[in-house]
Amino acid sequence: MTQQTHTARAIPDRLQSPAARALRSWESILVAVAIAIFVTNSFTSPYFLNAWNLSDATFNFTEKAMIALAMALLIISGEIDLSVASIIALASTAMGLAMQAGADVPILVLVGIGAGLLCGAFNGFLVAGLGLPSIVVTIGTMSLFRGIAYIVLGDRAFTGYPPGFAYFGQGYVWWVFSFELVLFTVLAVIYWALLHRSSFGRAVYAIGNNATAAQFSGIRVARVKFILFLLTGLMSGIAAVCLTSRLGSTRPSIATGFELEVVTMVVLGGVNILGGSGSIPGIVLAALIIGMVTFGFGLLNVPGIVMSIFLGALLISVIALPRLFGKR
Amino acid sequence: MNILKNRDVLLAFAIVLLIGGVAARFPAFVRPGNLVNVFNDTSPLILLAIGQMIVILTKCIDLSVAANLALCGMAAALLNGMGVPLPLILIAVVLMGGALGAVNGLLVWKLGIPAIVVTLGTMTIYRGTIFLMTGGAWVNAHQMSAAFKALPRTVLLGLPVMSWIALAVIALFFVILTRTPLGRSFYAVGGNPHAAVYTGIDVGRTQCIAFVISGALAGLTGYLWVARYAVAYVDVAAGFELQVVAACVIGGIAIAGGAGSVIGAVLGALFLGVINNALPVIGISPFWQMAISGSAIVIAVALNATQNRPKGRIILKEVEPA
Amino acid sequence: MKPILSLRGISKSFPGVKALQNVQLDLYPGQVTALIGENGAGKSTTVKVLTGIYQPESGAITLDGQDVQFANAQAATDAGVTAIHQETVLFDELSVAENIWLGHAPRNRFGLIDRRAMRNGARDLLAGIGSTLDPDLRLGDLGIASKHLVAIARALSTDARVVVLDEPTAALSHKEIHELYDLVETLKTQGKAILFISHKFDEIFRIADRYTVFRDGQFVGEGLMHEIGETALVRMMVGRSVDQIFPTRTSKIGPPVLTVAGYDHPTEFADIRFTLHEGEILGFYGLVGAGRSEVMQALFGITTPSKGAVRIDDKVRVIRSTHDAIAAGIVYVPEDRGRQGAIRGLPIFQNITLPSLARVGRNGFLRMAEEFKLARDYTQRLDLRAASLDQELGLLSGGNQQKVVIAKWLATKPRVIILDEPTKGIDIGSKAAVHEFMAELAAEGLAVIMVSSEIPEVLGMSDRVIVMREGRIVDEVTGDAMTPERLVRAAAGIAEAA
Fold first, then answer.
1. Mutation site for B-interface testing, chosen from C55, C84, C102 by largest number of B Cβ within 10 Å
2. pLDDT tens digits, one per residue of B70-101
3. Is A143's Cβ below 8 Å from some Cβ in B?
4. Of the candidates A184, A292, B150, B152, which lies 20 to 30 Å from A206 by C-alpha distance?
5. pLDDT single digits (tens) B253-285
6. Could you tell me the residue ranges of all domains in chain A?
7. Which of A135, A150, A311 sits opposite B290 (nearest CB)?
8. Which residues are CB-contacts of B156 (< 8 A; sequence separation ≥ 6)?
9. CATH class held by domain B2-29+44-304
10. Which superfamily does A25-324 belong to?
11. Do B200 and C115 touch (CB under 8 A)?
């Protein structure tokens, strides 16, 4: 409210302070839900409130949440990548091959990340370069990438990764804070800055709202989209390193169904599935919620497939409920 | 229409070429008995591809078909176990599949949720429901009645009943899509939803009907699948939805809606079916299947896009005499 | 004479807007009624109420004295009301015959669509309007004029008694317009009631028998065409007598800024050459589809010309993307504001800073305070009306959205600003403000190109006018040579009268 001195008809910058706006946002609902789940879980199971158990629980979501960070940007821009789980399978298979060829730990990591980047570049070329619809393209590459893993492995598996490799999925940086959790936290901060504080992030929002007008405003739409697919591939590659390290083996069926959980996280995090809006804090909160619910179900011995029913229902109802009650 | 017809001819030609190529090395592949087998094996894919094609015509996509198939197949096996007569089971699976499709359709129509999200969600819900129904147990051959297992395999006039059903469904939907107002409205809704409203066509309702058709066909296929392979479990036909989408895309169904034909979908399915059957014959591991249908989707989408690229407005006329 | 169809006390509102308030309209058999009003007067909403697309909140529709309700488009068609809409509402993937008959196709005795009857019927209907179009052709392969004929045949296929023509001539050529007039005469002799909506007064006076005027969603008056003159009609339309007044300009034309030479595009334009000077407003006149926007979009890097050179301040600039154009100092305010200009979901200030992010940010990071400062400076200059700068752009009126789009471009400090139909679809008040502002920009030394199809605007604002036809420059006029007759003749390709 500093510019009121200019003229009588000066337009204020904001009517609501950013804090007041945040209080009424989707993210604050998520905070309330997260607290409610935390309290419920504490009461239903005596094992929940234990630093090490809680730390274990974070492994439920950190790998998917890393991908969700990049997927959020991609969906905000109006595209989607359904091939992320298959990229993990292919990247993990590539690491397995490298291991058999005698590669040491740094090379393994580079191979995993490099494979992810290559897959992302392939998707990006098809969507941003050739202008094909991302839904079908990534349904195709979803089948293609995992198919390559099957061609290489068939019904076999790669095992026997070097001991030092276990750190990425099983190591701890300090006390109960695992490498994966710390890495996710760092990545979340980077993505927050990228989406909310950089001109690249602004371009992402502009493209998601109106790609034509964004192009008419001098934004290189194809380039931005290509980079977004590259980032999603990169995150899938990093997730592949962590997951392979955690499991200690590679099967072609690794990470099956991850794409559903990643998309659910993104939608639950408040990203509009049609593009144009969403935030990184929302994604982090959604990841925490899904992680705690999975952990809670696990403590109650609920089978994994029931958890996936819950996720499917959650995905639909998060979008359906606001529409049913006319909020959007 | 001409381009589409040309495309169908090209695809048919490719299939013949493929069969010929395999036959050159392995003549047994083109024996009538084996070709009947190939068609019969491809029947489930054809049935689902026709349903999927209609959904895609209306600008939607149905990723839940394989889960729907598995759920209805399990329901059929369980009903059989309870002693329900076969005709009732057939009616039940079609109704159940249709109802599951209607769930997708209503969410798309009434709440305006994108089809991809709806069916990604119901895909896991439907498959999870099988687990809830059975606790993960299998229904094996010895738990099924002889009549239940026999129907799809019974040979009539040289063709198994499953193939006859596929042929009947092809004929039925060919007529519906080309000769009924409903069929034409699928094209209208996908081709120009805005204009469809002006024509008095309810876009959401038409999309919902497409989902019901796709679901009902998946339900019917569920019974056929479970009876033919004589086993029902949670992961029946897991990932099959990708092959179904692949068949449609290869068959020239425009993913943006409004363009495609039953013949195209059938040819797309046959193309994949011939490849799947030829792989073991020419000694390639079946683990190649997934990558092949994946690359087929990518290549077909790229080809469709270059064909349908809108031409710019032509303003310049030939230089006029001054 | 009794009307076939009457609207009485019809109201319809949308969130935030009362589109129609208690309006009335009568359509008589064998007569053409013109519905007249400015943009936003409620004409399109009325058409949609008549054809069952919208349901009114209150009021009655009577057909032959009976109260009727149109629950959807089909119900209106069944009752004998049909419309030819301003947008093409046809299907590219279906055949001509199917486009004509979709929704009411003839059936054979099995209840299936009778394709032979459909094809023959289509041929007859097309013949009735003087067309020999093959009913089996795919609609997507036809040109715009043929598509229009299909739309008319479709409207006639329902055997309608009430025909609505919603700006039917907007996309038609001179010859096609005359064919349409003949068609309207035929429909009149068949006793059909016709509602004619057009912005072109010469058309209205030529073919309408009656008029009804709406203003801001309200009924203003009605009467017989031959009892009213143009001035009186305009006064009813705008609520006051308006002689369009343009700002008086003392143009100080400086050195050349932009030089375009030998500009060619494979399908859209050829041999475009012109020079634009500092402080000059250069008008581009032509019929809709003459290729003016296409040239401008090539200059702005949306499409790539096959040959030709662009020089700015005597330096050759290669423009392959909008990014290049902005860097070269060329900016473009597009005609299609909703699709190409405004990003409605983003706040006002973010719309304004979007092309200038490199300047207001630092090392790729944003600086909000700088963004707000830039937005504040330019919105004040354009006298924007808004609640706050972080309001979503979509919540503003069309005129204010246009101001934001212009502010966005000025904030990049361009050398050349191209305005494509800058006052299309905005109210008279905003129109004058935009004109005023254009004059101001030119006076400050900016080089301005204005593409416009409105002759008064072109003549009132430009220092010089270039006329385009079928992708080529056909005339260039300055000073006293700038007469309406000369521009119209050049644009339409009519030879100079002897």
1. C102
2. 999 999 999 999 999 999 999 999 999 999 99
3. yes
4. A184
5. 988 888 899 999 999 999 999 999 998 888 888
6. 25-324
7. A150
8. B164
9. mainly alpha
10. ABC transporter involved in vitamin B12 uptake, BtuC (1.10.3470.10)
11. no
